[in-house]
Amino acid sequence: MRASVPVGIAVRGRRGVGAATVADALSAAGVVVSDAGEVVVMVIAEVCKPEDLAVLAELRRAGVPVLIVFNKADLAGSGPGGPMATAQRRAVELRALTGVPVVPMVALLAAVTLPAELVAALRTLAVQPADLTSADAFVAGEHAVPHALRARLLATLDRFGVAHASLACSRGADANELPGLLRRRSGVEEVLAAVHDVAAPVRYQRVRAALAELRALGGDEVGRFLAADDTVIAVMAAAVEVVQAHGLVVDPGTRPDAHVRRARHWRNYGRGPVDALHRSCSADIVRGSLRLLGAR
Protein backbone atom coordinates (compact mmCIF):
# COMPACT_ATOMS: atom_id res chain seq x y z
CA MET A 1 0.00 0.00 0.00
CA ARG A 2 1.45 3.37 -1.05
CA ALA A 3 0.48 4.97 2.25
CA SER A 4 2.96 2.74 4.10
CA VAL A 5 5.95 3.38 1.79
CA PRO A 6 8.66 5.44 3.57
CA VAL A 7 8.65 9.11 2.60
CA GLY A 8 11.52 9.93 0.27
CA ILE A 9 13.84 12.76 1.29
CA ALA A 10 15.77 14.92 -1.19
CA VAL A 11 18.92 16.54 0.20
CA ARG A 12 20.04 19.77 -1.43
CA GLY A 13 22.64 22.39 -0.71
CA ARG A 14 25.28 24.67 -2.16
CA ARG A 15 28.70 23.27 -2.91
CA GLY A 16 30.84 23.09 0.22
CA VAL A 17 28.06 22.96 2.82
CA GLY A 18 28.28 19.18 3.27
CA ALA A 19 25.02 18.15 1.60
CA ALA A 20 26.50 14.81 0.50
CA THR A 21 27.70 14.10 4.05
CA VAL A 22 24.24 14.89 5.44
CA ALA A 23 22.67 12.62 2.81
CA ASP A 24 25.06 9.79 3.74
CA ALA A 25 24.27 10.24 7.45
CA LEU A 26 20.51 10.10 6.80
CA SER A 27 20.88 7.05 4.56
CA ALA A 28 22.95 5.30 7.23
CA ALA A 29 20.12 5.98 9.68
CA GLY A 30 17.57 4.30 7.39
CA VAL A 31 16.09 7.35 5.66
CA VAL A 32 15.17 6.90 2.00
CA VAL A 33 17.25 9.60 0.27
CA SER A 34 16.17 10.29 -3.30
CA ASP A 35 16.50 13.16 -5.77
CA ALA A 36 12.73 12.86 -6.28
CA GLY A 37 11.94 12.98 -2.56
CA GLU A 38 8.63 14.38 -1.36
CA VAL A 39 10.38 16.31 1.44
CA VAL A 40 13.47 18.47 0.97
CA VAL A 41 16.29 18.77 3.48
CA MET A 42 18.11 21.97 2.55
CA VAL A 43 21.65 22.06 3.90
CA ILE A 44 23.34 25.33 4.76
CA ALA A 45 26.53 26.18 6.62
CA GLU A 46 27.56 29.34 8.46
CA VAL A 47 24.94 31.61 6.84
CA CYS A 48 21.74 31.43 4.83
CA LYS A 49 22.73 33.05 1.53
CA PRO A 50 20.38 34.82 -0.91
CA GLU A 51 20.52 31.82 -3.24
CA ASP A 52 19.41 29.59 -0.35
CA LEU A 53 16.45 31.89 0.31
CA ALA A 54 15.56 31.84 -3.41
CA VAL A 55 15.51 28.03 -3.49
CA LEU A 56 13.50 27.95 -0.27
CA ALA A 57 10.92 30.39 -1.66
CA GLU A 58 10.53 28.24 -4.78
CA LEU A 59 10.00 25.08 -2.73
CA ARG A 60 7.44 26.75 -0.49
CA ARG A 61 5.52 28.08 -3.49
CA ALA A 62 5.38 24.50 -4.76
CA GLY A 63 4.05 23.33 -1.39
CA VAL A 64 7.05 21.08 -0.69
CA PRO A 65 7.76 20.45 3.01
CA VAL A 66 11.26 21.70 3.87
CA LEU A 67 13.70 21.23 6.75
CA ILE A 68 16.87 23.31 6.96
CA VAL A 69 19.92 21.52 8.35
CA PHE A 70 22.47 23.99 9.70
CA ASN A 71 25.51 21.82 9.06
CA LYS A 72 29.03 22.30 10.42
CA ALA A 73 27.41 23.56 13.60
CA ASP A 74 30.71 23.03 15.43
CA LEU A 75 32.03 26.05 13.53
CA ALA A 76 29.19 28.34 14.64
CA GLY A 77 31.41 30.18 17.13
CA SER A 78 32.41 30.12 20.77
CA GLY A 79 29.50 31.91 22.42
CA PRO A 80 28.00 30.98 25.80
CA GLY A 81 27.68 27.21 26.13
CA GLY A 82 30.08 26.44 23.29
CA PRO A 83 29.61 26.02 19.53
CA MET A 84 26.55 23.75 19.63
CA ALA A 85 24.67 26.10 21.96
CA THR A 86 25.64 28.95 19.64
CA ALA A 87 24.37 26.93 16.68
CA GLN A 88 21.06 26.35 18.48
CA ARG A 89 20.63 30.09 18.92
CA ARG A 90 21.49 30.63 15.25
CA ALA A 91 18.91 27.99 14.33
CA VAL A 92 16.21 29.94 16.20
CA GLU A 93 17.20 33.09 14.30
CA LEU A 94 17.19 31.24 10.98
CA ARG A 95 13.74 29.81 11.65
CA ALA A 96 12.44 33.33 12.27
CA LEU A 97 14.05 34.43 8.99
CA THR A 98 12.89 31.53 6.83
CA GLY A 99 9.70 30.33 8.49
CA VAL A 100 10.76 26.67 8.35
CA PRO A 101 12.30 24.35 10.99
CA VAL A 102 16.08 24.57 11.36
CA VAL A 103 18.22 21.94 13.12
CA PRO A 104 21.98 22.17 13.78
CA MET A 105 24.14 19.21 12.80
CA VAL A 106 27.75 18.09 12.59
CA ALA A 107 27.17 15.57 9.81
CA LEU A 108 30.81 14.49 9.72
CA LEU A 109 30.36 12.75 13.08
CA ALA A 110 27.04 11.00 12.41
CA ALA A 111 28.40 7.72 10.99
CA VAL A 112 32.08 7.61 11.87
CA THR A 113 34.26 4.53 11.48
CA LEU A 114 37.49 4.71 13.48
CA PRO A 115 40.28 2.29 12.50
CA ALA A 116 42.62 1.10 15.23
CA GLU A 117 45.41 3.55 14.37
CA LEU A 118 43.08 6.55 14.81
CA VAL A 119 41.81 5.20 18.12
CA ALA A 120 45.41 4.79 19.26
CA ALA A 121 46.15 8.36 18.21
CA LEU A 122 43.14 9.59 20.19
CA ARG A 123 44.36 7.72 23.25
CA THR A 124 47.72 9.45 22.92
CA LEU A 125 45.99 12.82 22.58
CA ALA A 126 43.98 12.04 25.71
CA VAL A 127 47.14 11.99 27.82
CA GLN A 128 49.15 14.43 25.72
CA PRO A 129 46.79 17.09 24.36
CA ALA A 130 47.67 18.83 21.10
CA ASP A 131 47.04 22.42 20.06
CA LEU A 132 43.43 22.54 18.79
CA THR A 133 43.20 26.31 18.42
CA SER A 134 43.23 25.88 14.63
CA ALA A 135 43.47 23.11 12.07
CA ASP A 136 46.95 24.24 11.03
CA ALA A 137 48.17 24.34 14.63
CA PHE A 138 46.83 20.83 15.27
CA VAL A 139 48.51 19.28 12.23
CA ALA A 140 51.75 21.27 12.12
CA GLY A 141 52.74 21.42 15.80
CA GLU A 142 55.23 19.07 17.39
CA HIS A 143 53.57 16.05 18.96
CA ALA A 144 54.01 12.33 19.59
CA VAL A 145 51.19 11.60 17.10
CA PRO A 146 52.71 11.88 13.59
CA HIS A 147 51.62 14.78 11.36
CA ALA A 148 50.01 12.47 8.80
CA LEU A 149 47.94 10.73 11.44
CA ARG A 150 46.79 14.04 12.87
CA ALA A 151 45.76 15.13 9.37
CA ARG A 152 43.69 11.94 9.02
CA LEU A 153 42.05 12.59 12.40
CA LEU A 154 41.18 16.11 11.29
CA ALA A 155 39.71 14.88 8.00
CA THR A 156 37.68 12.23 9.84
CA LEU A 157 36.47 14.16 12.89
CA ASP A 158 37.46 17.82 12.51
CA ARG A 159 38.64 19.63 15.65
CA PHE A 160 35.28 19.33 17.42
CA GLY A 161 35.22 15.56 17.04
CA VAL A 162 38.88 15.18 17.97
CA ALA A 163 38.31 17.18 21.15
CA HIS A 164 35.28 15.15 22.24
CA ALA A 165 36.72 11.77 21.24
CA SER A 166 40.02 12.36 23.04
CA LEU A 167 38.13 13.62 26.11
CA ALA A 168 36.03 10.44 26.06
CA CYS A 169 39.23 8.36 25.87
CA SER A 170 40.63 10.23 28.87
CA ARG A 171 37.49 9.18 30.77
CA GLY A 172 37.92 5.52 29.90
CA ALA A 173 35.75 5.10 26.79
CA ASP A 174 36.70 2.11 24.67
CA ALA A 175 36.94 1.97 20.90
CA ASN A 176 33.43 0.53 20.50
CA GLU A 177 31.87 3.40 22.42
CA LEU A 178 33.43 6.22 20.40
CA PRO A 179 31.21 6.04 17.26
CA GLY A 180 28.04 6.19 19.38
CA LEU A 181 29.37 9.08 21.42
CA LEU A 182 30.28 11.02 18.28
CA ARG A 183 26.89 10.21 16.72
CA ARG A 184 25.16 11.76 19.75
CA ARG A 185 27.33 14.85 19.39
CA SER A 186 26.47 15.10 15.68
CA GLY A 187 22.83 16.04 16.22
CA VAL A 188 21.64 13.41 13.73
CA GLU A 189 18.93 12.13 16.09
CA GLU A 190 17.45 15.63 16.31
CA VAL A 191 17.57 15.89 12.51
CA LEU A 192 15.81 12.53 12.14
CA ALA A 193 13.07 13.63 14.54
CA ALA A 194 12.63 16.87 12.62
CA VAL A 195 12.50 15.03 9.28
CA HIS A 196 9.75 12.81 10.69
CA ASP A 197 7.77 15.88 11.79
CA VAL A 198 8.22 17.74 8.51
CA ALA A 199 7.05 14.68 6.58
CA ALA A 200 3.79 14.47 8.57
CA PRO A 201 1.66 16.23 5.89
CA VAL A 202 2.95 13.82 3.24
CA ARG A 203 1.99 10.79 5.34
CA TYR A 204 -1.43 12.28 6.12
CA GLN A 205 -2.19 13.13 2.49
CA ARG A 206 -1.18 9.61 1.45
CA VAL A 207 -3.63 8.17 3.97
CA ARG A 208 -6.42 10.45 2.73
CA ALA A 209 -5.67 9.53 -0.89
CA ALA A 210 -5.72 5.81 -0.08
CA LEU A 211 -9.07 6.16 1.69
CA ALA A 212 -10.48 8.08 -1.28
CA GLU A 213 -9.42 5.26 -3.63
CA LEU A 214 -11.04 2.68 -1.37
CA ARG A 215 -14.22 4.75 -1.15
CA ALA A 216 -14.35 4.85 -4.96
CA LEU A 217 -14.17 1.04 -5.09
CA GLY A 218 -17.24 0.73 -2.88
CA GLY A 219 -18.64 -2.51 -1.50
CA ASP A 220 -19.78 -3.66 1.94
CA GLU A 221 -16.37 -4.84 3.08
CA VAL A 222 -14.72 -1.55 2.10
CA GLY A 223 -17.53 0.36 3.79
CA ARG A 224 -17.03 -1.57 7.02
CA PHE A 225 -13.28 -0.90 6.90
CA LEU A 226 -13.74 2.83 6.33
CA ALA A 227 -16.27 3.08 9.16
CA ALA A 228 -14.26 0.97 11.62
CA ASP A 229 -13.05 2.55 14.84
CA ASP A 230 -9.44 1.59 14.12
CA THR A 231 -9.55 3.31 10.72
CA VAL A 232 -11.07 6.52 12.02
CA ILE A 233 -8.63 6.69 14.93
CA ALA A 234 -5.63 5.93 12.70
CA VAL A 235 -6.58 8.84 10.42
CA MET A 236 -6.96 11.03 13.48
CA ALA A 237 -3.45 10.05 14.62
CA ALA A 238 -2.02 11.06 11.23
CA ALA A 239 -3.86 14.40 11.46
CA VAL A 240 -2.56 14.98 14.98
CA GLU A 241 1.02 14.53 13.72
CA VAL A 242 0.45 17.25 11.13
CA VAL A 243 -0.85 19.91 13.49
CA GLN A 244 1.70 19.06 16.16
CA ALA A 245 4.49 19.34 13.60
CA HIS A 246 3.26 22.89 12.99
CA GLY A 247 3.61 23.75 16.66
CA LEU A 248 0.02 23.23 17.80
CA VAL A 249 -0.94 21.22 20.86
CA VAL A 250 -3.51 18.41 20.86
CA ASP A 251 -4.97 17.37 24.20
CA PRO A 252 -3.78 13.79 24.78
CA GLY A 253 -6.38 13.07 27.47
CA THR A 254 -8.23 9.76 27.45
CA ARG A 255 -11.18 10.61 29.71
CA PRO A 256 -14.61 11.36 28.18
CA ASP A 257 -14.40 15.05 29.07
CA ALA A 258 -11.04 15.25 27.22
CA HIS A 259 -12.59 13.75 24.09
CA VAL A 260 -15.46 16.27 24.22
CA ARG A 261 -13.10 19.19 24.87
CA ARG A 262 -10.82 18.12 22.02
CA ALA A 263 -13.70 17.72 19.59
CA ARG A 264 -15.08 21.15 20.42
CA HIS A 265 -11.69 22.84 20.18
CA TRP A 266 -10.80 21.37 16.78
CA ARG A 267 -14.30 21.93 15.39
CA ASN A 268 -13.87 25.64 16.17
CA TYR A 269 -10.31 25.62 14.85
CA GLY A 270 -11.43 24.14 11.53
CA ARG A 271 -14.05 26.85 11.14
CA GLY A 272 -11.41 29.56 11.51
CA PRO A 273 -9.00 31.11 8.99
CA VAL A 274 -6.94 27.98 8.29
CA ASP A 275 -5.75 26.37 5.07
CA ALA A 276 -7.31 23.30 3.47
CA LEU A 277 -4.78 20.91 5.03
CA HIS A 278 -5.47 22.08 8.57
CA ARG A 279 -9.22 22.18 7.93
CA SER A 280 -9.09 18.54 6.88
CA CYS A 281 -6.91 17.63 9.87
CA SER A 282 -9.28 19.36 12.28
CA ALA A 283 -12.24 17.43 10.86
CA ASP A 284 -10.41 14.13 11.29
CA ILE A 285 -9.41 15.02 14.87
CA VAL A 286 -13.03 15.85 15.67
CA ARG A 287 -14.25 12.62 14.07
CA GLY A 288 -11.68 10.53 15.92
CA SER A 289 -12.40 12.24 19.25
CA LEU A 290 -16.11 11.56 18.94
CA ARG A 291 -15.43 7.95 18.01
CA LEU A 292 -13.22 7.57 21.10
CA LEU A 293 -15.98 9.13 23.18
CA GLY A 294 -18.50 6.69 21.77
CA ALA A 295 -16.17 3.76 22.45
CA ARG A 296 -16.07 4.77 26.11
TrEMBL record:
InterPro entries: P-loop_NTPase
Origin superkingdom: Bacteria
Source species: Mycobacterium dioxanotrophicus
Name of the protein in question: Uncharacterized protein
